[in-house]
Amino acid sequence: MAILDFGDALNLALREEMRRDPRVYCVGEDIVLGVPFGVTKGLAEEFGTARVRNAPISEAAIVGSAMGAAITGLVPVVDMHFADFVTCAMDEVANQIAKSRYMFGGQISCPLTLRMPYGIGKSAGGHHSNSVEAWFVNIPGLKVCIPSTPADARGLLKTAIRDPDPVLIFEHRGLYRVTGEVPEAETLVPLGLADVKRDGGDVTVIATARMVGESLAAADRLTGEGISVEVVDPRSLVPLDREGLAASVRKTHRVVIAEEGPMRGSVGAWLAWVIMEDCFDDLDAPIARVAGPNIPIPFSPPLEAFATPGAADVVDAVRRVVK
Amino acid sequence: MYATMLRIRRAEERARELYAAGRIPGFIHLSIGQEAVAAGVCAPLRRDDYLLSTHRGHGHLIAKGGSLRGFMAELYGRATGCCKGKGGSMHIADASVGYLGANGVLTSGCVLAPGVGQSIQMRGTDQVAVTVFGDGAANRGPFHEGVNLAALWRVPVVFVCENNFWASTTAHDLSTAGGSIAARAAGYGIPGATVDGNDVLAVYDAMESAVARARAGQGPSLIEARTVRFMGHFEGDPQGYRSRGEVEAGRQRDPIARLRAHLEGAKLLDAAHVARVAAVVEAEVQDAVDFAESSPLPAPEDALQDLFVHYPWTD
Question: What is the complex's ipTM, to 2 decimals?
Answer without folding.
Answer: 0.95
